Amino acid sequence: MLHRCDNRRCVNPDHLFLGTRKENLEDMTQKGRRVKGESHGMKRLTEAQVREILASPETSHSLADRFSVSDSAIYLIRRRQRWAHLEGVSP
Question: Could you tell me the residue ranges of all domains in the chain?
Answer without folding.
Answer: 2-34, 38-78
